[in-house]
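Hi R.,

Here's the chain you asked about this morning:
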Amino acid sequence: MKSKNGFTIVELLVSLSLTLVVIIVLFEIIVVLKDLFQVSSLKTELLNKKSILVENIYSDINSRSVSRIEQCGDYCLDFTMNDASTKRLQIDKENLIISYGDYTIKLNNTYSIGSIYFSNDMTNYISTEKNNGIFNVRIPIYSKVTNDENLGINIVATYNTSGMAIGSLYIADLNENECLDGIFCKDKLYAVGNQVKLGNYNWHIVKDEESSVTLLLDGNEIPNRSHTITGMTSYKWSTSYINKYLNDTFYKSLLSSEIDETEILTKNKGVCDDESGKGGNPGVLNTEQKTCKSDYVYSNVRLMSLSEFEEIKKYLQDNNIDSSFLYSDEVGKWALINADSKENKIMLVNSDGSTGLETYSALLNVRPIVVIMKK
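And here is the predicted structure, written out as tokens:
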């Protein structure tokens, strides 16, 4: 019988189909590898560039070459060196350029720059030996090639306020919730001294830290109030009239759609009730204690302590920030939580910024503070 050589049509079609499938799979693998290489290449290039810029900034701050940082525009910071020379951190969002000194990063059109933030938090206003300030710059950088992953610059540098000063920083960009100018928004970063409105009252930012913002009520925003409840034999914060008013009627007036009750977290473990206070009406405000077991710690709205007032006042003056909101003829005398427990006297801030004890004989101006948690 004569044998037949070659392939049948069916065999040829099957082999061609298998070859086509292999080619398609290989092509898809090549495309995926190409995309991965492109993404990896873009990320590596940007990471290398931003690491140089960030390292330059860290080097200047950590070597204590920087004497002052000031904002020079919406997206601009001037770093003044000890030799009086200046390096500028400049972000041009429209042209996708970020520069520090003579080093520049030019992003291509696949990138976009998000909302920029500058902040300056204080951990201890009066330290002269250790780093007690935290300087933060965030410049989000996104790319569609990397599925909008944030590849941006995030600088968190500690510094000593006795050797380096940072001027008032403000935020030019709105955040995701579109915080309005002049209206307090917990997600926004503030400079100490800024004035904001919360609960239809005017407040000043006295601390802006990584996780919270502390606000002090402006003078004469609420009527002067008595501090003691009639019939009380001794004054304690937990049983005082001013505590009841501030943490009930006044507190409820602060709550709004922007501020949730769980976000107001005022706590101060450095001040507590002093049960040695005697005299009933007028009574005495409480002294600061090392150990605290007091309802004062759990108050949502409280008065400022003497040490707190002094550190904020010093910080404002050391950084050339207007401190007139703390004391003025318009504000008049206002009460602190501290007093002398052995004398029937209240600790007051006078209109010239001095503090002192005074016999409680009239209604006192009250300027409470609240601490609001950030996201």
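One quick note: The first helix runs from residue 9 to 62.

Cheers,
M.
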